[in-house]
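$ ./design --mode recover --in tokens.txt
reading tokens...
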């Protein structure tokens, strides 16, 4: 506001100065006219004087009047000149004040420009600092993202390693089960072979004593002690035949009918999350089929590598009905393997 007021005052001062300069010009014009009038009056006075010289007293009075009028005009001119000088001095003072106000206004403007320049420098420095902070923040976020990605990759690697170890353990278990089954099969084969060969050895044992008996009739004169030798051969032979009847019917020992599962059982539900993640695999379960056809203990023998698929298979098989195994015409409990494939199709 002070700046506007100073500018307005300076403008008014300039306006007043111009007015006074015009007024001074007008006064100078008037003075010039008065001087011309004085000159003309002087000329008239001279003429009058000349005429007065010839005219006498009347001329002298006119000359005196002209002189007095000329003196009055001169006094008026002096007064006007003094007024012009005073107004010129006042105009000079006003001009000095105006120049001083203009200088103050220019100083204030330069100060404002300097402050605006300093503010622009401060704003630029602030912008640079904010850019550096943003770059540092982005670098920190990038580093955190890389750390998170590395952590996720490490977790995926650990999960894959655990899955591989689980599969390896599953394969080792399968190999151990196969070895156990092979050993059982070998034992069963040896048992069947032994049971099949036992009657042949028994019949060979019966035939051997009869081959030695013929020479016996030729020894009637032997002392009575010999009859005690022959009885062991004939009485011990009869007990041998009861032993071989066991091998001819091997179905009486062990399981005669293996367990099976009903085709009408509900299929396992394919987990929606597994479908979205494209999880596939084969789950092999060991099921203890009870004598009433229900599933007793259910455990994972071979994992698919995905816990969701394994759990879905377990939940389904626990509700299944089975045809129980039978031995000697009676239903018994038996472990049974159930393969459950999970495969995505278009």
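writing sequence...
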């Amino acid at each position: 506001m002070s700046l506007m007021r100073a500018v307005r005052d300076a403008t008014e001062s300039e306006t007043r100065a111009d007015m006074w300069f015009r007024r001074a010009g007008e006064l100078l014009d008037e003075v010039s006219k008065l001087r011309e009038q004085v000159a003309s009056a002087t000329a008239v006075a001279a003429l009058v004087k000349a005429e007065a010289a010839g005219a006498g007293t009347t001329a002298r009075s006119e000359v005196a009047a002209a002189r007095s009028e000329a003196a009055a005009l001169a006094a008026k001119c002096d007064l006007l000149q003094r007024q012009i000088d005073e107004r010129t001095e006042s105009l000079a003072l006003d001009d000095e004040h105006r120049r001083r106000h203009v200088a103050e206004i220019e100083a204030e403007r330069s100060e404002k420009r300097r402050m605006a320049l300093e503010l622009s420098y401060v704003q630029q420095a602030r912008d640079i600092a904010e850019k550096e902070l943003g770059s540092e923040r982005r670098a920190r976020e990038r580093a955190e993202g890389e750390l998170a990605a590395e952590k996720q990759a490490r977790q995926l690697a650990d999960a894959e390693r655990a899955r591989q170890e689980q599969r390896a353990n599953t394969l080792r278990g399968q190999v151990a089960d196969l070895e156990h089954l092979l050993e059982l099969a070998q034992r069963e084969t040896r048992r069947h072979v032994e049971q099949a060969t036992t009657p042949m050895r028994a019949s060979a044992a019966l035939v051997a004593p009869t081959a030695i008996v013929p020479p016996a009739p030729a020894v009637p004169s032997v002392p009575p002690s010999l009859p005690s030798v022959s009885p062991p051969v004939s009485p011990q032979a009869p007990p041998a035949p009861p032993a071989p009847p066991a091998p001819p019917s091997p179905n009486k020992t062990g399981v005669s009918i293996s367990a099976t599962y009903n085709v009408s059982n509900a299929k396992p539900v394919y987990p929606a999350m597994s479908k979205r993640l494209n999880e596939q695999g084969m789950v092999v379960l060991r099921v203890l089929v009870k004598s009433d056809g229900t599933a007793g203990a259910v455990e994972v023998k071979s994992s698919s590598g995905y816990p969701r698929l394994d759990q879905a298979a377990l939940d389904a098989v626990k509700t299944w009905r089975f045809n129980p195994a039978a031995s000697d015409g009676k239903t018994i409990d038996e472990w049974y393997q159930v393969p459950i494939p999970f495969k995505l199709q278009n």
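exit 0
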